[in-house]
């Protein structure tokens, strides 16, 4: 049986479950800022935070949250003299975490590129931007798991199903194991 330490290289598309030691799984957390459908907000940003073991970072931050009694969502408009040290702690924790990457995509919704490619359907735009980010984030021998921020979609929108199917089809392998 081959193992990762045997240093036998296989093409990423040829990897199977028996090669699990050569496959890296990464968690990706997806969130957005702004709204694609709100005309009053000219910019829209979507970002992905990719990491191997989110438990360590999450437990470190949760410990500090409880110690400091800060349980609000972290947003720039919530920074104050009372909690600035907590915000600094979280930022430092991100930079101290190994195997953590951040990817983002920002667009002006009236730009020619956005209007030509996305403006007719905001849900298609959200999906396509997510696929662009995942494409940038994926490395050889990785399988991603995407945890998306909760957004309310119309019943006919199948963001999770479409994103997984389209991404795996584009890579011609299992590159995205799930979306939730």
Note down, in words, how this protein is organized.
- The protein contains 5 helices and 5 strands.
- With 180 residues, the protein is α/β, with parallel strands linked by helices.
- It has 2 domains: 116 residues, Nucleotidyltransferase, domain 5 (2-Layer Sandwich), CATH 3.30.420; 44 residues, no CATH class.
- The protein has a 5-stranded mixed sheet.
- Strand 4, helix 5 and strand 5 form a beta-alpha-beta unit.
- The longest helix is centred in the last third of the chain and has 16 residues.
- The N terminus is likely disordered.
Order of helices and strands: EEHHEHHEHE
CATH class of the largest domain: Alpha Beta
Residue windows where pLDDT falls under 50 for at least 5 positions? 1-5
The assigned structural class equals: alpha/beta
CATH architecture of the largest domain: 2-Layer Sandwich
CATH names the topology of the largest domain as Nucleotidyltransferase, domain 5
Q: Tell me roughly what share of residues is in helical segments.
A: 25-40%
- Which of globular, elongated, flat, extended, rod-shaped describes the shape? flat
Number of domains: 2
Largest sheet: 5 strands, mixed
């Amino acid at each position: 049986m081959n193992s990762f330490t045997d240093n036998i290289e296989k093409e990423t598309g040829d990897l199977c479950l028996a090669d699990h030691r050569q496959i890296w799984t990464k968690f990706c957390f997806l969130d957005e800022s702004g709204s694609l459908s709100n005309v009053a907000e000219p910019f829209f940003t979507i970002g992905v935070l990719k990491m191997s073991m989110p438990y360590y970072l999450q437990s470190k931050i949760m410990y500090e949250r409880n110690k400091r009694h800060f349980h609000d969502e972290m947003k720039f408009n919530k920074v104050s003299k009372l909690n600035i040290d907590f915000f600094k702690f979280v930022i430092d924790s991100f930079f101290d975490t190994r195997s953590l990457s951040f990817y983002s995509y920002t667009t002006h919704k009236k730009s020619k590129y956005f209007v030509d490619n996305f403006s007719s359907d905001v849900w298609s735009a959200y999906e396509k931007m997510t696929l662009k980010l995942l494409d940038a984030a994926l490395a050889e021998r990785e399988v991603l798991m995407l945890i998306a921020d909760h957004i309310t979609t119309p019943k006919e929108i199948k963001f999770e199903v479409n994103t997984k199917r389209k991404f795996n089809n584009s890579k011609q392998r299992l590159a995205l194991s799930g979306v939730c």
